[in-house]
Amino acid sequence: MAAILVGAFGSLVGSFLNVVIFRVPAGFSVVFPPSRCPSCFARIRAFDNIPVVSWLVLRGKCRDCRVGISIRYPLVELCTAGFFGVVALRFWSGDLISGSAAFTNALTAALILIAYLYLAAVSVVLALIDIDTRTLPNRIVLPSLLVGIVLLSAATLIGSDYSALLRAGIGSAALFLAYGMLAFASPGGMGLGDVKLAAVLGLYLGYLGWSQLVVGAFIAFLMGGLFGLTLMVFRRASRKTSIPFGPWMLAGAWGGALVGVPIARGYLSLFGLA
Q1: What is the DSSP letter of 33?
Q2: Cα 162 from Cα 138, distance rounded (Å)
Q3: Which pTM was predicted?
Q4: What is the pLDDT of residues 18-71, one digit of tens each?
Q5: Where are the alpha helices (DSSP H) in 95-245?
Q6: How many C-beta atoms lie closer than 10 Å to residue 185's C-beta?
Q7: Cβ neighbourhood burial of 222 (10 Å; 0-12, 13-18, 19+)
Q8: Residue 244, by phi and psi: left (phi above 0), alpha (psi -120 to 50) or beta?
Q9: What angle do CA 188, 189, 192 make, to 5 degrees?
Q10: Helices 192-208, 210-233: crossing angle, 10 deg rounding
């Protein structure tokens, strides 16, 4: 039930994320003016702003000018809803709010859930902005680091899991330095936006554990490398072609967060270490 409710909330968040994805790269405010049709600039009415439903009712067209509205808008809302539901399943459990320490456990779990829901929302925004513009805006990346530090530190202080916060700090610094060295060694291959995003993802992955951190980083390079290689095989890109790496960093991080532990155990078991 919690996952369904969080997913429904995610669809509302996805509607706002569409605004962020469009306005932040253009340097516009995300709160003013209110949502408008990108073609005729007519203000979108409240009953035309219901996630997914309104797009279907209007058949993908503006009510005023009848110009088509990209299907990406409802897809972002649907994907964000599903993303939030998965995050709720992963980071919230009724077991966390039972027993004598019910309030403390519930508050700690809530802060962790909020932190990773925030990361989920940011992941959707940054992935699409990077695909569209080949940039990872500081207006989104840097606040994400601060929000992560505040929420995860608060969860640590309440839940007293100081080792998790220490791992988060080490993970953030490790990925920041690793990506920084790659950017220095190959200025055209890795941007500073990737370096800053690495610090954010290292924080969140390190908080979960070493397995999640290592697997998340590995999946990013594996998926990004395979994608680039595929493009070159089909002659859609060359070695000098700029390919956005942010989406692969984010996909890898979530792979590590969701299935990092079983992947690490499976790998170590091959060598009799698990």
Answers
A1: S
A2: 29
A3: 0.93
A4: 999 999 998 998 988 888 887 888 888 888 889 999 999 998 898 889 888 899
A5: 102-133, 138-159, 162-185, 192-208, 210-233
A6: 9
A7: middle
A8: beta
A9: 80
A10: 140
